[in-house]
Amino acid sequence: MSGERHSDSAPLLASTEALFWMPGAVPMTFDGILDGTAARQGMRWLAARLRRPARPAPPIRVVRGTPGGEDDHDFEPVPGLPARLPPGETLLWQGAPSAKALAIQAFHVRKVAAYFAVLLAADAINVGLTQGTHAIPAALAPGAGLTVLALAILAALAVFSARSCIYSITTRRVVMRYGVVLPMVMNIPFVQVASADLKVRPDGEGDIALRPLGPDRIAYFALWPHARPWKLSRPEPMLRCVPRVEQPAGILSRALSEAARAAAPQGEAAAPAAPVGRSPVAA
């Protein structure tokens, strides 16, 4: 299984155009997403898999941290990367979102809790005025239970999203591996980065948003929650809720500068690298 998937995933890190990749599937590009090529390739791949003769089911192997099945990331030669880096490319940094920060910033657990608190308070006042204070606990019990359930679901989604995500910065690209149910890998070569914006919060955690170069667009919901909020018409991939975010921001800034100098023709001045600047990234 490992050798087969390595060959399938090789184009991801060798190409400067492949942007999306799913285990066992074909690479997808911006152009393929826009003109429907990726969808047609996916259907042909699915049809070929369905025509294959049935094989004996492999034994179920339970891996620690994976509920009841095989680890979706077993094929990775390096955690977070679907294939080995090409010669001359070096891994500079890897990290993951903070589950707590992701719950607050992306899943808005505090806002949801405040919303339900206002509803429960209004209900308590209404019941107290009409039925008496003795009826308040029984009247609020169902609503309180639903509130706890909703917050627990959001918190669990944040935890699973953080655990399934790895951000990687190399000397040539940013790679984002994410996806709770359907693992995906996004490859963002530096040549496709127009600029990078940094937001640092008081506790040192923050976001790095990458603005892609060119007219092509990425589907916002294919990126979420690893997308810059409210950039629906021009979605921007974002390394979100990264602890001590200034460290990877500095690494990325230096890597972009060095990549720009290396790409400049000999004897010509290097084009300005995409800066990693502080920006009021929407929360």
Describe the protein in words.
The protein has 283 residues and is α+β, with helices and mostly antiparallel strands. The chain has two domains: 2-97 and 165-278, no CATH class; 101-161. It is 40% helix and 18% strand. It has helices spanning 2-14, 30-35, 37-51, 99-105, 109-131, 136-163, 220-223, 246-263; strands spanning 18-21, 28-29, 91-95, 166-170, 173-178, 184-189, 193-200, 206-212, 238-242, 276-278. The strands form two sheets. A six-stranded antiparallel β-sheet has the order 2-1-6-5-4-3, with helices on both faces. Helix 5 (109-131) runs antiparallel to helix 6. It is elongated and about 80 Å long.
List keywords for this structure.
283 residues; alpha+beta; 2 domains; six-stranded antiparallel beta sheet; 8 helices; 10 strands; 18% strand
Summarize the structure.
The protein is an alpha+beta fold and 283 residues long. Helix content is 40%, strand content 18%.
What's the arrangement of secondary structure elements?
Elements: H1 2-14, E1 18-21, E2 28-29, H2 30-35, H3 37-51, E3 91-95, H4 99-105, H5 109-131, H6 136-163, E4 166-170, E5 173-178, E6 184-189, E7 193-200, E8 206-212, H7 220-223, E9 238-242, H8 246-263, E10 276-278
Parallel strand pairs: 7-10
Antiparallel strand pairs: 1-2, 1-6, 3-4, 4-5, 5-6, 7-8, 8-9
